[in-house]
Amino acid sequence: MAWATAAIGIWTCVAPWIVAGDVAHTRSIGSNLITGAIATLLAPAPAAAHDKDKDTSRHGPGTRGAMPGNH
User: Fold this and answer.
1) pTM value?
2) Helix crossing, 2-20 with 26-42: angle to 10°?
3) Is the pLDDT higher at 48 or at 65?
4) What's the pLDDT score for residue 43?
5) 65 in Cβ contact with 59 (< 8 Å)
6) Burial level of 16, CB count in 10 A (0-12/13-18/19+)?
7) Model confidence over 33-63: pLDDT tens digits?
8) Torsion angle of alpha carbons 37, 41, 46, 48, nearest 10°?
């Protein structure tokens, strides 16, 4: 899912030139570049949070990799 979000962010950056051609205006280009860059940079955040949650649920809170039965 994070890769799809990154792809949408990149598409948002390049879309003014691909869709509108030479008639793209400075405001729309600037808006698309800023929005696309933010979306692309923030795309990996949910995946990282999901990986962190998965690690915590596997070992339980506060155990930090302790193996079951080694108390």
Assistant:
1) 0.58
2) 170
3) 48
4) 87
5) yes
6) buried
7) 999 999 999 988 877 777 776 666 555 555 5
8) 170
Q: Are residues 59 and 66 in contact, defined by beta-carbon separation less than 8 angstroms?
A: yes
Cβ atoms of residues 38 and 5 within 8 Å:
no
51 residue type, one letter: D
pLDDT band at 8 (very low <50, low <70, confident <90, very high): very high
Please, what's the b/e burial string for 37-65 (b: 16 or more CB within 10 A of its CB; e: otherwise)?
A: eebbeebeeeeeeeeeeeeeeeeeeeeee
Counting every residue written for the chain, the total comes to 71
Dihedral of CA atoms 15, 19, 22, 24 in degrees, nearest 10, equals -60
